[in-house]
Structures are given as structure tokens and as C-alpha cells.
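CHAIN AND CONFORMATION:
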Amino acid sequence: MVVIALGLRLAFILIAHTYKFKTDQSDFSFGYEMGRIGRAIAAGQGFADPFDGHTGPTAWEPPLYPYFIAGVFKLTGVYTHASALILLSINSVFSALTCIPIFLIARKCFSERVAVWTAWAWALLPTVMYWCTRWVWETSLAALLLTLIFSLALKLEEPDGAQPWIAFGLLWGAAALTNTSLLSFLPTSAMWPWYRRWKKGKPSLGGVALASLFFAAMIAPWLVRNYETFARSIFIRSNFGAELRLGNGPGADGTWMAYLHPTQNPLELRRYEQMGELAYVSERKREAIEFIRADHARFAWISIKRFVYYWAGRPRSSGIAGLIDNSVFLASSVLAFWGLGRALRRRQPGAWLLLWLILFYPAIYYFVYPHARYRHPIEPELGILIVYLISEAEPDRKPTLPAN
């Protein structure tokens, strides 16, 4: 499955020439802010300059993927076709490897048949391939890490010893340095195996402590870097206030107000440069909080719209094609919810962990703004639930009546 999945993704990259990014906006679509930071690192300026120009040190994005981009830029050049091909190919490796934890999760929670079907669906469906073959971003890596974490959380209720807990801590450390939104699932992913082991009379305190230690060791160097750079504590990334403002303020309608982003608005870029990153983010957060406090009912309504857009797709102006895309997007969400409900009723192993993932991971986007990319890290689990539902819908075979 992994080999075929990778072959299909690489073939699409080469045939569709997706490694040839647009060169407008000084190659900004090649990695966006992460690409800009990678360029600065490769040029010897450190983790800096997330936008146009030299704006200084930054914590706008988590560090792992920008450093990854920088390493490729060092080898094959900044914003070159070769670099794009390498980065998209490695993203495709991440996506293809996700077949393995998908299979393991589905087999543990449901059956071998569900595992095989879901893994093949992930390998073959064009919609799954989109992000790894077109975006130089951490999306496919985040999906792989979260799926590995979910699979390991399921296994932790059984084995004894230190190694699984160490792996759990290391994976969560890597996830935090890749996409901080994944951390919303950390508490429940740790509590679930602890609770399951507690019911069986198995000790877990030492394992939890060991996982916490390795998690802290993974993220500590970056926290120290942020403190030394900005003279204040910043937990991995700094830009939450700015993101909150991009979804909340005059004109907010439940989508991303792109026209307020420093990459799209020269006035906002100038404010960012003049104020500095932390002051700018703090001011944007203040503006968003003032908007929320001024009209709680409107904020609640906009948040409901964001919930709908997260699961049904954002409004589009692309006519029938956009309507079809959103219809498929909504249908996949409905089928996944239906499958989750069936799994909970039938008390399938891991069903409650699936519920917590679907409840907690997307929650932050209901208050900021949604994007189709933000659903991708949990799409392996959604796919498992969809295939489980379809497999359960097969008609039962009628028993053969004995001949008279």
C-alpha cells in the first residue's frame, strides 16, 4: 500500500508539474510564511522574516518544518524547482506512510476488513493526495504524527515497560513543534490509556511521568530560544492573537479575513515592522477581544458558522465545481459522524478516543477561522469511521433454508 501510494503521489507531482510554483509575490506560494522563514535560515539570518523584507527574529510558526525547508534550500537552492520537487516528494512519503497507522488503528478498533479498505482508500483517493502534492507545508507530517500518536495511545493500555511511553512523549514533542493545534488532543490521548490501565490494575504513573519528561525535553530548547530572543516566555509560537483577529472583527463572517493579513495588506505589514512581532500580535489580540466582548451574540453566531464551514466547507464563488466539492466535503463529515455514533453504540474499542479527537482537535478553529487544510490531520480517523459505517451497511446474508 505504501509503495503504491507513494508512486501515485510522485507520478502526479511530475505529470501535473505541481513543483513549479507561481513566482508572483516573490515565490510566496512556495511555503508561504514557512518558506520565508526557511529562506532566512538558509541565508544565515536565523529563524526570522516570515513575510517580505527583513523583519527580524520570529516565532510566528512552529520550528520543525521551517528548519526542514531550510535544509532542502541549503542543498538544492532557495525556491528552486529541485527544492520544490524534493519537499513535495517528502510530503508524499509522509502521506504514504500514514497508511500504516491507519491500518493498525482500524484493525484495533474494528476489523481487518475495515483496516484494509481504509488504508487502500488513503493510498488511492485523489482528494487525500491534494495537500502533499501541492502544498509545501506541515499538513501531511501533522496527519502522520497525529495518526501515529492515536495508534500508540490505543496500544499503551496493554504493554509494560518504558519504551512505549518514551515513544509517546517523543511523538508528542515532534507534534508540538510541527503544529501546536494538535496539542488540544494531548490530555485525552494520555488520559485514555491511563484510565484503561487503571481499570485493569496496571500501573501507569511512571509511564506518564516518563512520557512527560521526554515531551518536555523535546520542546525545551525551543522555549529557551524564544525566551532568549524575545525576553519573555512564548509557548512555541507567538501569533495566536493575530490569527484570532483574522477571524473576529468588523466584517467577520466566519471565514478568514485575508485582507487583514500582513502578507496581503501593506499597511498591516508596516504595522508589524514598526511595532515588532509581539507588540503587533498583542494589539491584534486586543482588537479581537474587544470585538467579542462588544457583541457576544454575534460572536456566538459567527462561531456557529465557523463550525458549519469546518465540517461542510467554506462558501465558494466557483459555481457548480465549488458546490460539488463542498457537497462531498459535507457528506464525508456526516458519514464519519454517523460511523462514530454507531461505534459508540456498539462499544467498539477506541470509540471514545475517536470521539475525543473529533471533539477537541477542531474546537480552536470554531473561534478563529476554518480552512479545509485544518481538517486533514484528523482525516485518517474520519476515513476509518466512514469505511466502518459502509462495511456495517452491507446486507446480512439470508440463511439457506433446508430442502423439503
